[in-house]
Design a protein that fits this description.
The chain is mainly α. The protein has two domains: about 90 residues, no CATH class; about 110 residues. It is built from nine helices and no strands. Helix 1 packs antiparallel against helix 3, helix 2 runs antiparallel to helix 3 and helix 7 packs antiparallel against helix 8. The radius of gyration is 17 Å and the shape is globular.
Length: about 200
């Protein structure tokens, strides 16, 4: 029984372990060590991918796991992004006036996604789609290029477009399934396939 419980909670334990990175990310940021900050952020992103893989592989997906993952995402992403912008302020201040839409539009669609989730599920929970994982990887790559003072507009557009696609894909799934969005789906295509 104990081993069964541990197996059921394995993905959630991996998710919770990501929170251990947060104080170190904040500490690295406050000590103005952007490389350490980005490295720690990358490590927790890797664990984020691992927990989803483990949950699907062991067939232990759960609403609790999805909601826990979302809360942890928000707890890590919001302070990490704020710290990162502060750490690379000179580069950000150079890039933002030229490409404000690359930062503003994904932020707006992200907020709409969470509002849509709350409207249909009455809780803050984001569907962890493959497009979301790709967007996260591109955000990390964008962070590295900004860290090196080598912002590439093409990468910026690719990251912003991928993030917006993820947000719109998630909102569409919420709309189609409404309050029945209780599965850990990985794409809109999967929803269409399960409907037939």
């Amino acid at each position: 029984m104990s081993s069964f419980f541990q197996r059921q909670q394995l993905a959630n334990m991996i998710s919770l372990s990501r929170l251990g990175f947060l104080p170190f990310i904040v500490l690295a940021g406050l000590q103005k060590q952007p490389e350490a900050c980005v490295g720690l952020f990358a490590a927790q992103l890797f664990l984020d991918a691992v927990d989803g893989f483990v949950a699907r592989r062991l067939h232990i997906e759960s609403d609790l796991g999805r909601r826990l993952d979302t809360v942890i995402d928000l707890a890590i992403w919001l302070p990490s992004m704020a710290l990162f912008v502060w750490l690379v302020w000179d580069e950000f201040a150079r890039v933002f006036p030229v490409y404000p839409h690359l930062f503003i539009i994904p932020t707006i669609t992200s907020a709409l996604m969470y509002i849509t989730a709350y409207h249909y599920l009455h809780t803050v929970a984001a569907i962890h789609l493959y497009s979301g994982k790709l967007a996260s990887a591109l955000v990390l790559l964008l962070m590295v290029t900004m860290l090196l003072d080598r912002f590439h507009p093409l990468l910026g557009y690719l990251t912003a477009c991928t993030a917006v696609v993820y947000h719109l894909e998630a909102m569409t799934i919420y709309f189609l399934k409404k309050d029945r969005t209780d599965e850990n789906v990985t794409s809109l295509l999967q929803v269409f396939r399960s409907a037939h």
